[in-house]
Design brief:
Layout: H1 3-8, H2 23-37, E1 41-42, E2 44-46, H3 51-54, E3 59-61, H4 63-72, E4 78-80, H5 85-94, E5 100-102, H6 118-132, E6 136-141, H7 146-154, E7 158-160, H8 165-175, E8 178-182, H9 185-194, E9 202-206, E10 211-213, E11 223-226, H10 238-247, E12 252-255, H11 261-266, E13 269-270, H12 273-282, E14 288-292, H13 295-304, E15 309-312, H14 328-340, H15 351-365
Parallel strand pairs: 1-4, 2-3, 4-5, 6-7, 6-8, 8-11, 9-11, 12-13, 12-14, 14-15
Antiparallel strand pairs: 9-10
Helix pairs in contact: 2-14, 4-5, 7-15
């Protein structure tokens, strides 16, 4: 289910009294409930969440890592996932039937994931099969809906993360002649380019126009990139890099591979969120860094590493709007609903979709 589908459903909104509570009162109540529920409650928090939420997280990490940790935590009956919709879906797919996954605010979606819906994807697949025959393996970034993961699973493909994308693309070319990479064109392009595939051998599928964007003989196509992107990472530009090089000539620039190809090419380094965090943690005191990723994380790194000079690559960057939907009032509301026995904002992926999505996830996890 996409965030657009969620928004079409009758809204269950945050009661007004939560907005009138003081921060101190809400924090005290969250602590009380965590103590009350003990090991039956588990709160995973994505790296991009606000500090007011992250302070209560039992684990902090990337989306797949948090879903896996949730599944391993068998004593936890209630998984309150502080992230976005597709992350909570993945947690529901991996956890057991007696574990309930809750998203504190159902409006917390991902624009990238919503750029590939199942209807567009099945329509595109039919046309691509007509053009290329049975020569394509679908891969999807884990930043995708459960329905897209299921589509990839039933068509022999796998999921990928920004950490293992290189290995998964290598594997895919042992299976088929071509790949379809969903839904982030930039991660797909950057990964394939790193593996030596020329940009001239990459096409872009436009799901809105239902067309393949490519110049040249069609049999040259090796990678078909879905025309999707992260609205945060696409806002880092070549001009941002030029400004940093001019103002801070000794500063290293590290970016996420969801950034545009030209931005990644001009940076000193690139890698997953975990990779960026590890590089900053291992960097020498006094080193200086411009980071091209989500602003909540950049601000957290600035606060944690005051012995280093850290800035955002884009000084005008705002935090991810949908990630910022999860706040302290919504977290408290979710916890109080658990105490009251209410099933508000529960994420449930239907069994058939879960089974097929697991095929895609397992193919990745076995590599």
């Amino acid at each position: 289910m996409s965030i657009l589908d969620v928004l079409k459903q009758p809204a269950i909104t945050l009661p007004d009294h939560y907005r009138n509570m003081s921060k101190e009162e809400m924090e005290r109540r969250v602590i009380e409930i965590k103590d009350m529920l003990g090991e039956e409650l588990f709160i995973p928090g994505h790296h991009y969440q606000k500090d007011e939420v992250i302070q209560f997280a039992d684990a902090v990490g990337d989306s797949l890592q948090l879903a896996q940790v949730s599944a391993q935590n068998k004593k936890a009956k209630h998984i309150v996932f502080c992230g976005v919709h597709f992350m909570a879906e993945t947690a529901d797919i991996l956890t057991s039937e007696d574990q309930m996954v809750i998203l504190p605010d159902m409006r917390a979606g991902c624009s990238m994931a919503d750029m590939a819906n199942i209807h567009q994807t099945e329509r595109a697949w039919e046309e691509l099969q007509r053009l290329f025959g049975d020569t394509i393996l679908p891969l999807t970034y884990v930043n995708s809906t459960a329905a897209i993961k299921a589509f990839v699973g039933r068509n022999g493909g796998a999921t990928v993360t920004s950490s293992n994308a290189h290995n998964m693309v290598k594997w895919s070319f042992t299976q088929k002649e071509r790949i379809l990479f969903l839904p982030d064109q930039h991660l797909g392009r950057n990964t394939a380019h790193d593996l030596g595939i020329p940009l001239e051998d990459m096409a872009v599928w436009d799901p809105i126009q239902h067309t393949l964007e490519f110049e040249g003989p069609i049999d040259r196509v090796k990678v078909i990139l879905w025309k999707g992107h992260c609205s945060v990472h696409e806002n880092f530009t070549v001009k941002n890099i030029e400004d940093v090089r001019r103002t801070y000539p000794d500063m290293k620039i590290i970016v996420h591979p969801e950034c545009r190809r030209e931005v990644v090419a001009l940076s000193d380094d690139n890698g997953s969120t975990k990779y960026i965090i590890d590089q900053i943690e291992q960097a020498a005191p006094g080193s200086s860094w411009a980071i091209g990723t989500e602003m909540n994380l950049v601000n957290r790194l600035i606060q944690r590493h005051k012995d280093k000079d850290i800035i955002s690559l884009n000084p005008n960057m705002c935090p991810c709007l949908t990630m910022n939907r999860i706040d302290l009032p919504h977290l408290l509301w979710s916890l109080e609903n658990i105490v009251d026995g209410s099933k508000v904002n529960q994420i449930q992926v239907n069994p058939d979709t879960s089974q097929e999505a697991l095929l895609a996830l397992d193919r990745m996890l076995m590599r």
